[in-house]
Specification:
The protein has one domain: Aminopeptidase (3-Layer(aba) Sandwich). 32% of the residues are buried. Strand 2 and strand 3 form a beta hairpin. It is 34% helix and 29% strand. With 177 residues, it is of the alpha+beta class.
């Protein structure tokens, strides 16, 4: 069973462990000092930003993180995405990670994505769709989106999370049922 709750500051040591994992660090490219984790995740945990960081559990065990936000709350992302795909201000985006490398490649990612998107329709009643840009080189991520029912709708140049990557991204979408 997949469940989640909002990330709290008490979860930062676990999140830091996940961010240090090579399979996460490759694509998230995050600073991992305790101060950096506090700086980057603290405002959302304290509800000082409109996005959500969701600590995800499988059968009661923490396994990953999903970040969920409305594009309208972050207009700079709407603007960056505009040349590639027109996105509604009410559209929602997600980012995700499975923290434990032993749980990767077993279908957990698509299950998490599917569960969070299913809840998104109730949590964000004005959202017409969920739109997720992914670095084109991150095959595991975009395959997880496809397995969760999203469709590739565009390709374009976006700023990569990791500077070692080129700007080529693929964009996936699922519309409200």
């Amino acid at each position: 069973m997949i469940t989640w709750r909002r990330l709290t500051e008490d979860d930062f040591p676990l999140l830091r462990q996940w961010l240090l994992q090579p399979h996460v660090a490759r694509w998230w490219n995050h600073e991992t000092s305790p101060e950096a984790v506090e700086r980057d995740f603290g405002p959302v945990a304290r509800r000082k930003e409109p996005s959500e960081d969701l600590l995800v559990f499988e059968d009661g065990t923490p396994v990953g993180l999903v970040q969920r936000s409305r594009y309208g709350d972050y207009p700079e992302y709407l603007e960056e995405l505009a040349p590639t795909l027109a996105v509604d201000r009410e559209s929602v985006s997600i980012d995700y990670l499975v923290g434990d490398p032993d749980r990767c490649g077993r279908g957990l990612g698509p299950r998490i994505i599917g569960a969070v998107i299913a809840a998104t329709w109730a949590d964000y009643p004005a959202a017409p769709d969920v739109v997720v840009p992914v670095a084109a080189a991150n095959r595991a991520s975009w395959r997880a989106l496809e397995k969760a029912g999203l469709t590739r709708v565009a390709e374009g140049e976006l700023e990569p999370d990791n500077p070692v990557d080129d700007r080529h991204h693929v964009v996936y979408r699922v519309e409200r049922p």
